């Protein structure tokens, strides 16, 4: 298969990834093989290949916003042909205190897609079946991919904050997550107040439907 490989031992400027021919992954017990249909680019992927995050493996296939079709290793829940999504959290130990108390996102020994295990910048990817999320029809794969990272982050934040329909909601920063979350807030009938740095973000927010936009030192006109 073809894959984009990051070799942390190469320090040549601009040589962050190389396109290589690699053997197709072999699935281990509990894994499914995906034919990759799309894989988004996240800021974390850039942090990995630019060296901002210390390498865990000398060579890795990045990419953790994977949309793929199950082609091997099928399970009763994931038959061949199922379209699934794979995110940054690629696995947990299932045994630490956090996993046993339903907060596996804080696992002591997690696997990270495209960082500690190979990701989706390739024709195929082998992933843990219990971390492959069946996707509904109706959205094309290219648009689904960003929802698996920025979308999840934004939506979870709205849930943790307990946002209710029709409320005034403040978004601090207006990057990928906020630009997706604001669509949900509009669907819920919320007024959105954005505080963010950067001219480009402040110009973008009104076009996404923000009620009010200010810089990082500004105070919204109403309590959110």
Description of the structure:
The protein is α+β, with helices and mostly antiparallel strands and 224 residues long. The chain has two domains: 2-141, Quinone Oxidoreductase, Chain A, domain 1 (Alpha-Beta Complex), CATH 3.90.180; 150-214, 3-Layer(aba) Sandwich (Rossmann fold), CATH 3.40.50. The chain has six helices and 13 strands. Strands 9-3-5-6-10 form a five-stranded antiparallel sheet. Strands 2-1-4 form a three-stranded antiparallel sheet, with no helix packed on it. Helix 4 (150-161) crosses helix 5 (176-187). It is globular, with a radius of gyration of 19 Å.
Top keywords for this entry?
224 residues; alpha+beta; Quinone Oxidoreductase, Chain A, domain 1; Rossmann fold; five-stranded antiparallel beta sheet
